[in-house]
Design a protein that fits this description.
By secondary structure, this protein is mainly alpha-helical. The chain has three domains: 19-123; 222-283 and 429-605, Neurolysin, domain 3, CATH 1.10.1370.10; 289-424, no CATH class. 59% of the residues lie in helices and 4% in strands. The structure holds zinc ion. Zinc ion is lined by residues 1, 370, 374, 400, 403.
């Protein structure tokens, strides 16, 4: 769902003076030149970004059979955008203006930093390496998505594997499905090794230590600060994760009629990577399908918009409805559309669209409100105070946190009763509901902030040797998740590479873990300080004050220093205490349930 912009920058109107000369000319001239540079950059960025986004949009929403042109146009538009962002001119201007940092205002500095960050991925100064890297990335993605998975020589797809892992009680069948899902890693190992070097070299040209360092710099943090932040959040959630792990070992052993293992065999879990375990249980009562079916898919979207309007947001632009692709393609359609929900900010201004396939059911209800969260975030920072290059989240995790915040609130009982989607008399098993939320939100923390982050840190920052890829991966899986491979996984495999992000969204997975903890910080603040309601049972609908708070988080985009801003808004920095507090009742419950059971994970990490 990460389909909101990657920040970008633009090449300037050339001035006749060199940057060096500028330091001796008068200050006003330099500032004039800087402003001209920034204006030109922002406007060129917008044009190129729009072209690229429109081409991508068509590729994702209306790809007709036999159409070979759209893909080519999309690639060309993307290349034009990348060439602009990484141009030597933007790099040298950006750098030289930053040398006069002391005389610049924070907004100018932020823009210049964003310009250089955007250049970092495609610096024209090492165009051969960049070219090689882009080709290697494209090949990696083609290998990944084109790979034919097989079980007993029968071709299967991702849905088949997911269905087996979700429902099958036959451990042999599960093992085959799990192994089939990892087979692609063998094909991808050489490519990942190659990308390790190419990614590092392309950013080193701009002074970053390595690719991990480059990705982290977007947060205004050092690698060390980021790794510490990840450690801290795992530590705070560890007591609960340890109980969840214990509960899951006994639950699964019972399900499969096996001895209770110390560590969870990976093929016992419902997810290929064990990243979220929510599918392990069903929660009675939160099934809104029949009510939503009676109302229809269009109602869901209108009601989602109504919700935001009730908080004080404007109506969506008319073009949202005319340009978006909101419903499944008809069965007999001569085109394909991507089935994954996403939100788009096409011209970094009012052209906002969503790609969904809404049908009236509970899942799409939550997803629609989540996607509209991204859309309203786009619209909020599209104002004259926020330059184009800074139209993004306060940090990369904020966008997802906003969507998930509203997605969580959209499924709480008082809100659902208020909107006529749930009968007030219905008895919910509150503890089971909390457990199901924890199995997704909490279980992701040691995976996202631990396994994925530390593996990619080692891969890029420590140049992890190729003959240790799989060994390191499973060391981390065991340490952070308490998960072990079902069979020996030697270096002929590369199980990390079976995860899409390792290949095409590299070294930024901690974004998801941060989103999860931010979401609970925001939600607890709204529940306790604004609504004065129990965080487990809120109704945001109609609360203008809640809307004001959410808008205040959104409206400044990436112009703010997110750490200062958070401190001002919440009186604390980013931390997992809010998440721990929200799930505190569950911790007590699980401790009772797990009494007398063995815990295999240590008490602290
Ligand atoms: Zn999202």
């Amino acid at each position: 769902m990460k389909k909101y912009l990657a920040l970008i920058c633009i090449p300037l109107i050339i001035s006749c003076e060199s940057a060096e000369k500028k330091t001796t000319t008068n200050n006003e001239d330099q500032l004039k030149e800087l402003n001209a540079f920034l204006d030109a950059y922002n406007s060129e960025l917008q044009g190129l970004y729009y072209e690229s986004a429109k081409a991508q949009w068509k590729l994702n929403t209306r790809l007709e059979e036999g159409d070979t042109v759209t893909n080519k146009l999309a690639t060309e538009a993307e290349e034009a955008l990348a060439a602009f962002m990484g141009s030597e001119e933007n790099i040298s201007k950006g750098k030289s203006f930053l040398e006069m940092k002391d005389e610049l205002d924070p907004l100018q500095i932020k823009q210049l930093e964003a310009i250089l960050y955007n250049a970092g991925n495609n610096p024209a100064t090492v165009s051969e390496i960049v070219k090689e890297r882009i080709a290697a990335e494209t090949e990696q993605v083609e290998l990944l998505f084109g790979f034919e998975m097989k079980i007993d020589d029968e071709v299967v797809d991702g849905n088949d594997i997911n269905a087996i892992l979700k429902d099958s009680k036959d451990l042999d069948e599960r093992l085959k499905a799990w192994e089939a899902s990892k087979e692609v890693g063998v094909t991808l190992k050489d490519g990942l090794y190659n990308l390790q070097r190419l990614r590092n070299e392309s950013v080193q040209a701009l002074g970053y230590a390595d690719y991990f360092d480059y990705q982290v710099s977007d947060y205004g943090m050092t690698k060390e600060e980021l790794m510490q932040t990840c450690k801290d959040m795992i530590q705070v959630m560890w007591p609960l994760y340890r109980e969840l792990h214990t509960w899951a070992r006994y639950e699964l052993a019972n399900k499969f009629d096996q001895e209770v293992p110390d560590y969870i065999p990976a093929h016992w879990l419902t997810n290929k990577w064990g990243q979220e375990w929510g599918a392990m249980i069903n929660v009675e009562g939160v099934d809104l399908d029949s009510k939503l079916e009676a109302k229809g898919a269009e109602w869901i979207i209108k009601e989602g918009e109504n919700f935001y309007k009730s908080l004080g947001f404007e109506a969506l632009p008319e073009s949202f409805y005319t340009e978006s692709s909101l419903y499944p393609a008809p069965k007999d359609a001569n085109y394909k559309k991507n089935s994954h929900a996403s939100a788009w900010h096409l011209n970094l201004d009012q052209d906002v669209r969503s790609l969904m396939s809404v049908v009236p059911n509970t899942e799409w209800w939550g997803t629609t409100l989540h996607e509209l969260g991204h859309i309203y975030y786009f619209l909020s920072y599209s104002n004259s105070e926020v330059p184009l290059v800074l139209r993004g989240g306060a940090n990369r995790a904020y966008h997802e946190a906003m969507g998930s915040l509203i997605g969580l609130a959209a499924l709480q009982k008082p809100f659902l009763v208020d909107r006529g989607l749930m009968d007030p008399e219905i008895e919910l098993d509150e503890m089971n509901l909390l457990l199901s939320e924890a199995l997704d939100f909490v279980v992701l923390i040691p995976w996202g902030a631990g396994v994925m982050t530390e593996f990619e840190h080692d891969l890029y920052a420590k140049n992890l040797p190729k003959d240790q890829f799989n060994q390191r991966w499973w060391e981390l899986k065991k340490k952070y998740q308490g998960i072990v491979p079902p069979t020996e996984r030697g270096e002929e495999y590369c199980d990390a590479a079976s995860k899409t992000h390792i290949n095409n969204d590299a070294a930024q997975y901690y974004d998801y873990a941060m989103s999860n903890i931010l979401l609970f910080q925001f939600h607890n603040h709204i529940a306790k300080n604004i609504l004065k309601q129990d965080p487990h049972a809120t109704n945001y609908f109609g609360s203008k004050e809640t809307g004001e708070f959410i808008k205040s988080l959104m409206v400044k985009g990436a112009t703010v220093d997110w750490r200062k801003d958070l401190e001002e808004k919440l009186g604390e920095g980013m931390n997992a205490n809010g998440m721990a507090e929200y799930f505190a009742p569950l911790l007590g419950h699980l401790k009772t349930l797990n009494e007398g059971r063995s815990h295999s994970l240590p008490e602290s990490l």
